């Protein structure tokens, strides 16, 4: 007899070059699926800003505590960003997936590779990880978006474009891939991927 199991919780990793719109798309997904999806809460060593809540906005650790957790193998991935450290705790992912909460995170290509590797040996992650890569139509599209965003000077934009050129070659390592178009079309593509993954039935 064939038994149909309930769809299990998923971890969506959304990657793409700077300016691909991955962070905005993740925010829209959280608004659309607010009852069953949460963002991955990141740990950091930066100071708490006014209005932020520990465990909700970030997990705030001292540099010493962060390093202790790194040595204890408690992070899936971690990195230095300017003068502070950021990382994703294994406990953050495991606990919420076990509660049947879908998770979504905008992560760079290197971080996505780390998760793919982890899923091979982590039974709590294996079968739940879905990686998505958003490609720009070309480098000029990325350049225009970064200029329009107005957050970086010309030197930083050039650096980001060089990184983007390398990242664009990694698209075929992801479970899903689509080429960025308009905001609405990109959101529709990401939403369709999520709904397809959720609707898959596992039979025994």
Q: If you had to describe this structure to a student in words, what would you say it looks like?
A:
This protein is α/β, with parallel strands linked by helices and 204 residues long. The protein has a domain of 128 residues: 3-Layer(aba) Sandwich (Rossmann fold), CATH 3.40.50.300. It contains 7 helices and 9 strands, in the order E-H-E-E-E-H-E-E-H-E-H-E-H-H-E-H. The strands form 2 sheets. The protein has a 5-stranded parallel β-sheet, with helices on both faces. The protein has a 4-stranded mixed β-sheet with strand order 4-3-6-5. A hairpin with a 2-residue loop joins strand 5 and strand 6. The longest helix has 17 residues. The chain is globular. The mean pLDDT is 89.
Percent of residues in beta strands: 15-25%
Order of helices and strands: EHEEEHEEHEHEHHEH
Radius of gyration: 18 Å
Name the shape in a single word: globular
Name the CATH class of the domain at 11-40 and 102-199: Alpha Beta
Could you give the distance between the termini? 8 Å
Q: Mind summarizing the main beta sheet? A: 5 strands, parallel
Count of discrete alpha- or pi-helical segments spanning 4 or more residues: 7
What is the overall pLDDT average? 89
Judged by helices, strands and strand pairing, the structural class is alpha/beta
CATH topology of the domain at 11-40 and 102-199: Rossmann fold
CATH architecture of the domain at 11-40 and 102-199: 3-Layer(aba) Sandwich
- Going by CATH, the homologous superfamily of the domain at 11-40 and 102-199 would be P-loop containing nucleotide triphosphate hydrolases
Strand order of the largest sheet: 2-7-1-8-9
Number of strands: 9
Low-pLDDT stretches are none
Specify the helix fraction band.
Answer: 40-55%
